[in-house]
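Retro notes (design track)

What went well: tokenization of the new backbones is finally stable.
What didn't: we kept losing track of which sequence belonged to which structure.
Fix going forward: every design gets posted as structure first, then sequence, in one message. First example under the new rule, 419 residues:
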């Protein structure tokens, strides 16, 4: 008998893990909207704040890459436990020593350690999903992953912190993040009884070491994996670039900071809903087609629409928000990429996911870097056109990510062809 979870596209045997990711990412997201202003108000310079988040972004990118190969070589449970350990150590050092004394070197070091935490925990579970989900259900399964990931990080984390800051204070809010990530770990690793089996887990230590190198050599053996990684970078580059300059641009057109935050929050409420929708769409219309047309072309068009909407719609709050919501919804058009890329290889799915996860981590600092390099010469309008053109390029690149013929033949009997 098919369960409700299976009908919805969420693997029943991993349901506790999904709940764990949601709670973990809520704990990780408690400082998303206020840490930078808080540090500036307490005497840190803009350059120091930027350096802090740059180093954090670098460690996220490194950890994102390691998550795939560690999960396959040593098992996702061990990789996720390592993520929890690094997160807790980093948080204790950052809040207890760094923020308490406003000691910048300690803050820089411990926040970097904290950055290793969530990719190892969350992206290792994504590898778990790709191994333990039937191919005809995989698009929906990864859609659910990005639903709980984004819902925890950008939605629940923001709502919880807005309550906690008023009732507990800033530093105590950060301390509670440890509680929430441990609760998430309990759901994902204790209540989740699913057993992960990978050929690499049966190999010797020397073979496991070779498995770590697979995270690099896989792009030579299957260049389409590299293309997938590049498309994944483009996917969220604008997401991390927009907050750097759009609030200033919108302020020039009469929008307050509060209105900007309402727009940005609504965008990602839309995004988490469409993460599920495009999981289903990808399984029906094909993963590659969904990424190309909804993700690449759709985001390219709506990036420009979002930017020009204050001018075109005479500063209408609701029409500007509607344009942003369209962009946020189509941003989820890239969701099937997490199903498509690991399906390019038969056995080295962890290595393929390592490249994809690296692509998820790099935009944390690539997005702001594009703004920093170009906004002084070509302005915010030029930056937006760069971001839009990148989306169109991603659509062209996706055209070349074709699945092996034997894979297509193996799934035609159980569902639509994934192309």
């Amino acid at each position: 008998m098919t369960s409700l979870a299976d009908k919805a596209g969420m693997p029943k045997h991993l349901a506790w893990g999904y709940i764990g990711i949601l709670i973990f990412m809520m704990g990780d997201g408690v400082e998303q909207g206020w840490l930078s202003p808080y540090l500036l108000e307490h005497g840190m310079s803009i350059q120091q704040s930027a350096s802090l988040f740059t180093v954090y972004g670098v460690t996220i990118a490194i950890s994102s890459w390691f998550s795939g190969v560690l999960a396959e070589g040593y098992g996702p449970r061990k990789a996720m436990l390592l993520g929890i350990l690094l997160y807790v150590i980093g948080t204790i050092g950052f809040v207890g020593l760094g923020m308490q004394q406003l000691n910048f070197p300690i803050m820089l070091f411990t926040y970097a350690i904290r950055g290793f935490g969530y990719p190892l925990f969350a992206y290792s579970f994504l590898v778990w999903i790709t191994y333990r989900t039937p191919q005809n259900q995989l698009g929906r399964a990864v859609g659910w992953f990005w639903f709980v990931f984004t819902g925890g990080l950008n939605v629940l984390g923001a709502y919880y912190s807005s309550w906690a800051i008023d009732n507990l204070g800033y530093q105590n809010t950060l301390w509670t993040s440890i509680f929430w990530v441990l609760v998430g770990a309990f759901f994902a690793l204790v209540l989740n009884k699913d057993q992960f089996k990978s050929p690499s887990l049966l190999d010797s230590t020397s073979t496991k070491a070779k498995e770590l190198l697979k995270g690099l050599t896989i792009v030579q053996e299957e260049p389409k994996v590299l293309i997938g990684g590049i498309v994944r970078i483009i996917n969220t580059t604008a997401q991390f670039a927009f907050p750097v300059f759009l609030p200033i641009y919108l302020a020039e057109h009469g929008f307050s900071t509060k209105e900007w935050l309402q727009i940005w929050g609504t965008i990602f409420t839309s995004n988490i809903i469409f993460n599920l929708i495009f999981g289903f769409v990808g399984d029906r219309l094909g993963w590659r087609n969904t990424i190309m047309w909804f993700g690449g072309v759709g985001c390219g068009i709506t990036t420009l629409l979002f930017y020009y909407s204050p001018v075109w719609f005479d500063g209408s709050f609701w029409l500007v928000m509607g344009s942003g919501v369209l962009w946020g919804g189509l941003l989820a058009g890239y969701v099937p990429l997490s199903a498509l890329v690991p399906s390019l290889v038969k056995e080295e799915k962890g290595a393929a996911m390592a490249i994809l996860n690296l692509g998820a981590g790099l935009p944390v600092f690539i997005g702001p870097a594009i703004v920093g390099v170009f906004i002084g010469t070509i302005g915010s309008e030029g930056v937006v056109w760069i971001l839009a053109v990148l989306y169109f390029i991603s659509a062209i690149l996706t055209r070349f990510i074709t699945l092996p013929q034997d894979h297509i033949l193996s799934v035609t009997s159980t569902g639509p062809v994934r192309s």
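Added context from the reviewer: The chain has a mean pLDDT of 85.
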